[in-house]
Amino acid sequence: MEKPSRRIPRRTLEGTRTLVLSAIDKGMRVDEAATVFGVGRSTIFGWLKLRKESGPAALVVKKAPGREPQLTERQMAQLRGWIIGNDPRQLQFEFGLWTREMVGELIKRKFGVVFTSQWVGTLLHRLDLSPQRPLVRAYEKNPERVRQWKEEEYPKIRAMAITAGASVFFADEAGVRTDYHSGTTWAPVGNTPIVIGTGSRVSANMFSAVNTQGKLYFSFFEGNLNAEVFIECLKKLLDDIPGKIFLIIDGAPAHRSNAAKEFAKSTKGRLKLFFLPPYSPELNPDEWVWKNIKHDHVGRMAARTKDELKKGIEKAVARMRNLPEIVRGFFADRGLRYMTT
């Protein structure tokens, strides 16, 4: 007797059908697929029959019928404008991130209509909105200072570099720990997967610099960043990159220290330091290097030792060095296009 299969939620039904039939197409037996995916044998045979008789399109899950929205087109447009045009705190909410519950409360306040949280989610999708991880910007940032940097200061630095025959690099430091994790992994629905990592907090600190041509410089350093450590990073940078360097960095204390400025002067023109506007990490393309290394690579490793962590970092760096188009792609970010125009 066939064991009753679990009920597959409508939102995952089409994906489950695709995975199951793809596995069978690649040679998996129906019995095995039923066990692996938790689907009844008769259900799988039904999907196979449906596809054979009506083609792959027959497996597409049709949208579930539901009640019509109780908001007019004008109200829908107003709602979208409030959500994308305001910090929730501007509308007397406690938190700075929109949730379905808060949107439901906003609808109730403005239009006197009560929706369930699930229906609010449906409504948000109809407004072409999706849940996304926000970028946090410091409220101290000065928009006028940013405009000056983009339209006046950086073009001037670039022109000076061309005249001096110097290369313009953007640099930054970052650290990553063995207990940092990102990404997802496939697992049965309802069973939280476990990946064996480490509970220790071993870290690796890194310094890197990039330019618009896709060149990437990278080195490790030990300890916390201070003026002495920063100067050692600069010495390595000068050893590895020939010619004059115009280095653009943020205003961290180590970067602005008298010792760092004196070191730059001692290079007799080989190195000049320039500083980004305060609280504006989005103006530094090197931030994308760390996103690539930390989130897209190392965070998915579950590294157990410092050596394992460093090898993973070096592998990610080597990939970017071998494929400079990846680094050049960082400059296509909306906030960085001013550098290539």
Helix share, percent: 40-55%
CATH fold assignment of the largest domain = Nucleotidyltransferase, domain 5
CATH class of the largest domain: Alpha Beta
Which residue ranges are poorly predicted, with pLDDT under 50 across at least 5 consecutive positions? 182-187, 192-197
Q: What portion of residues belong to β-strands?
A: 5-15%
Order of helical and strand elements: HHHHHHHEEEHEHHEHHH
The biggest beta sheet is recorded as: 5 strands, mixed
Widest beta sheet: strand line-up = 3-2-1-4-5
| Mean pLDDT score | 82
Instruction: Kindly give the count of domains.
Output: 3
| Count of extended strands | 5
Could you walk me through the main structural features you see in this protein, from its secondary elements to its overall organization?
This protein is α/β, with parallel strands linked by helices and 341 residues long. The chain has three domains: 10-59; 73-126; 143-339, 2-Layer Sandwich (Nucleotidyltransferase, domain 5), CATH 3.30.420. It is built from 13 helices and five strands. The protein has helices at residues 10-25, 30-37, 41-54, 73-85, 100-111, 117-126, 143-164, 227-240, 253-256, 258-266, 286-295, 306-322, 324-330, and strands at residues 166-177, 203-210, 216-221, 244-249, 271-275. It has a five-stranded mixed beta sheet, with helices on both faces. Strand 2 and strand 3 form a beta hairpin. Helix 1 (10-25) packs antiparallel against helix 2 (30-37) and helix 5 crosses helix 6 (117-126). The relative contact order is 0.09. Residues 182-187 and 192-197 have low confidence and may be disordered.
